[in-house]
Amino acid sequence: MRLAETLTEHGLTLKAQRDAMREGKILGWECTACRHRAITPTARCAKCGSDKVTTATFANDGKVVTFTIQTVASEQFLNEVPFAWVVVELDGGPRVSGWVPFVSRPGDLPVGQRVRFTPSYKPGMMFEKT
Ligand SMILES: [Zn+2]
After folding, report:
1. pLDDT of 62-110, one tens digit each?
2. In the chain, which segments carry CATH 2.40.50?
């Protein structure tokens, strides 16, 4: 089975996921057998192998698991440097990667810091401290 067919079959396309994020909603994939969740397209559950994968709405809030501070950025992020590239554990899962603007020192963003997904015209998923 091709991935594109799978996405159609499960009703969630990358475009629909991107459009939802612009509206402030995080959509992803969830296994109906074991409830494992993924932000990236998946035809089969990475945890139990089931092909019963459906669309799910994830929480917008979560906590920082790890991060790295970026002081040099591509043109798209010139107005946000320094920023932190973060891994966030959304409440109820899964873990996603994104970024938090204006973080210059590790003390500015302790591991465990609560953050909230904020729609942005910038690439990737932007989070802000709550
Ligand atoms: Zn599963």
Report:
1. 999 999 999 888 888 888 889 999 999 999 999 999 999 999 999 999 9
2. 61-129
Which residues have C-beta under 5 Å from ligand 1, the single-atom ion? 31, 33-34, 36, 45, 47-48, 50
How many angstroms is it from 129 CA to the middle of ligand 1? 31
Note whether 87 and 67 are within 8 A (CB): yes
C-alpha radius of gyration, the chain, whole number: 16
For tokens 């499960």, what's the residue?
Answer: 10
Residue 22: pLDDT band with limits 50, 70, 90: very high
Map residue 37 onto helix, strand or coil.
strand
CATH of region 61-129: 2.40.50
